[in-house]
Design goal:
Shape: globular
Main location: membrane
Structural class: alpha+beta
Pfam family, one: VWA_3
CATH architecture of one domain: 3-Layer(aba) Sandwich
Oligomer: single chain
Family: Belongs to the calcium channel subunit alpha-2/delta family.
CATH topology of one domain: Rossmann fold
Protein name: Calcium voltage-gated channel auxiliary subunit alpha2delta 4
Subcellular location: Membrane
CATH class of one domain: Alpha Beta
CATH superfamily of one domain: von Willebrand factor, type A domain
Amino acid sequence: MLLSVECSVCSQVVPLFDYYNSLLINEKDENDNYVELGDEFILEPNEHFNNLLVNTTYSDVQLPTNVYNKDPGILNGVYMSEALNPIFVDNFQRDPTLTWQYFGSSTGFFRLYPGIKWMPDENGVISFDCRNRGWYIQAATSPKDIIIVVDISGSMKGLLMTIAKHTIITILDTLGENDFVNIIAYNDYVHYVEPCFKGILVQADRDNREHFKQLVDELQAKGVGTVNKAVLESFKILREFREAGQGGLCNQAIMLITDGAVEDYESVFEKYNWPDRKVRVFTYLIGREVTFAQNVKWIACNNKGYYTQISTLADVQENVMEYLHVLSRPMVINHDHDIIWTEAYMDSAVRTLTQSLLLMTTVAMPVFSKKNETRSHGILLGVVGSDVPLRELLKLAPRYKLGVHGYAFLNTNNGYILSHPDLRPLVGDSDALSTVVA
């Protein structure tokens, strides 16, 4: 019999059941009893999965350290996703070339098949969050043009500036090769963090993102903040790219990061964004001060955006991720089930577990709520995906048609080489992957 309880906070009906938590499986307490959520989970080496200890009968669930494993939303999602288990098993039986299959939830849990034992890092922390992965972000949202506008006035000194920089870096980590970005800092004047990118948007590939991160780290707070000029500049850039048919050609947004806004900025929105509101404005109020909260919230709410307050470094990750849900709503409401293929990568999580190098790509698609009562709300449940070794894709090439010296290679839509006979992956200590063709 399955019992359930209603959460007094959110009125959700939460099933009381155990699931296999990948961190806790096979763990016992001092009395030699299995810990809660850590029942016996048979693991056996499997050659197909690089001799990693796996369970090909069941999937299990991983959660990052900052997500409570018995939160009502988590329990409901895990219970709902139990239905994926027989589907994963059947897929693998019908196609033995399949590797990892998984579902990444918008609430933070990650259901993985085959089930494995997940190990924390040296500090006892599990930092892996499926919502930060490129395959999740790419499937959950459409291509986007983003301008990050950050306040570097004197009031942002100290911890506030540190939080603001971390917020920018976290936003950059949510962007991919199909997105375009620029960063504008403002105090008395408007500053492009990279002067060479003045007045334009650049592709958010790995090189540009890393370059921006280095420049953001050098920002210093001084002067008086005047947000109007920075927002005005941002609207002009986005309008020029939109009218020229450049950029992502889908979503456009301004990310405003500040500790307060006191100017009369309504005229800027009237001239450049109303009534169509083609550009969403997301606002991040930095610090604990709430004096300007209503002003900053007004900016977001009147420009189809989202407002949030970030008081500590620990708040950054969850609060930044909220914008993805807003950008996914039109896609969810229209039920655009686009299937995406990611760029080639060497997954750091798999590399840690298997100690082997294997170039992968991921095929993924979003999962939406189809309930009639919530369909108009545009609720994204998560992303389902599977890893595909590039060597498996190359097997599909018709070698007999290529000639004696012919060979097949794969390119992405952004011009990056996925696979080539002379491709040499270069993986550094940071697990960042770059490739060269010898």
